[in-house]
Amino acid sequence: MASASQTSVQLHEHVFEPFLTPEMIQERVTQLGQELAFRMAGGEPTFLIMLKGAFVFAADLIRASRLNGEIGFVRTQSYRGTETTGKIRMHLAPEPALVTGKDVILIEDIVDSGYTMQAFLPKLEELNPNSITLVTLLHKPEAQQVDVKIDLAGFVIPPKFVVGYGLDYDGIGRQLPGIYQIAENF
Ligand code: IMP
Ligand code: MG
Questions:
Q1: Which ligand is nearest to the CA of 111?
Q2: Which of 113, 117, 115 lies closest to 48 in space, CA to CA?
Q3: Of the bound ligands, which one is closest to the alpha carbon of residue 120?
Q4: What is the pLDDT of residue 184?
Q5: Within a domain: 63
Q6: Residue 1 falls within a domain, yes or no?
Q7: Which of 16, 32, 52, 59 is deepest in the core (most CB within 10 A)?
Q8: pLDDT tens-digit map of 16-62
Q9: Residue 43 C-alpha to ligand 1 middle, in angstroms?
Q10: Atom nearest to 113 CA in ligand 1
Q11: Shortest-distance atom of ligand 1 to CA 118
C-alpha cells in the first residue's frame, strides 16, 4: 500500500478511495481495443469522443484498437433534477461529415442514469450513420433510469460516485491515473 496510486485522495470536501488501478484499467482498455478491432474488421470508423470525461479513455482505447479512423468530439450537458431531465444541451455537436454513412464508435466515460445517451443517440441517428457502437468505460446499471443499448462496457460498477482517468468531481480529479470511489454515501 505504498505507491501513490493506492492512497486515498481528497477532492473538495470528499475523500475518495482507490478503486481501479492504472494497471487494471490498461489491461481492460487493451481488451476493449482488440474487441473493437475485431468488430470493425479493418474498417475505418469514426471515433466520436464525449467530452470532457471520455478524453483519457478515448486516447488509450483508440491507440489500443490500432484502427485507422477520423476523430470527432461531442460535448453535451444534461439537465438534472427538473422536469426537463432527459433533455441535453449540445455544447459541441458532431460534424455531419464524420457521421453520415460512417461506422461510428461512440466513446463515453460512464453511463449512469442513462439520460445523456437516451437523449444523444437519437440526435446521432438523425445524421444517418451506417452503424453506432457505444463503448463506455464504466457502467452503473443500478443507477440507470432509462434503457440504453451499450455495446461494450469496460467495468460494471456499483452506483457510487467515481473520479479519475478523465472523470471529475466538480471540475477536479481528471488527471488521476487510476479511478477512485467516494468513501461515503453520495
Ligand atoms: P448519465 O446521463 O446520468 O448517464 O451520466 C452522464 C454523465 O454524467 C457522464 O458522462 C459523466 O460525465 C457524468 N457522471 C455520471 N456519474 C459519474 C461519476 O460517478 N463520476 C463522474 N462523472 C459522472
Ligand atoms: Mg460524460
A1: 1
A2: 117
A3: 1
A4: 78
A5: yes
A6: no
A7: 16
A8: 999 999 999 999 999 999 999 999 997 999 999 999 999 999 999 99
A9: 30
A10: 3
A11: 2
The single residue listed with the C-alpha cell 442513462 is: 114
**Residue 151 falls within a domain, yes or no?**
yes
Nearest partner of 108 among 46, 44, 173, 154, judged by Cα: 154
pTM: 0.94
Domain count, the chain: 1
Ligand 1 touching residue 148 (CB < 6 A):
no
What pLDDT band is residue 1 in, cutting at 50, 70 and 90? very low
- What's the gap in Å between 133 CA and the centre of ligand 1? 19
Domain assignment present for 4 = no
Amino acid at 75: R
Take atom 2 of ligand 1 and give the residue whose Cα is closest.
116
**CA triple 134-140-144, angle to 5 deg:** 85
Q: Is the beta carbon of 114 within 6 A of some atom in ligand 1?
A: yes
Q: In this structure, what CATH number is given to the domain that contains residue 119? A: 3.40.50.2020
Nearest to 135 by CA among 74, 43, 47, 67: 47
Residue-number span of the structural domain to which 157 is assigned: 9-80+88-182
| Active site members | 112
Question: Looking at residue 81, what is its pLDDT?
Answer: 55
Residue 5 confidence class, pLDDT cut points 50, 70, 90 = low
Is residue 85 very low, low, confident or very high in pLDDT (cuts 50, 70, 90)?
low
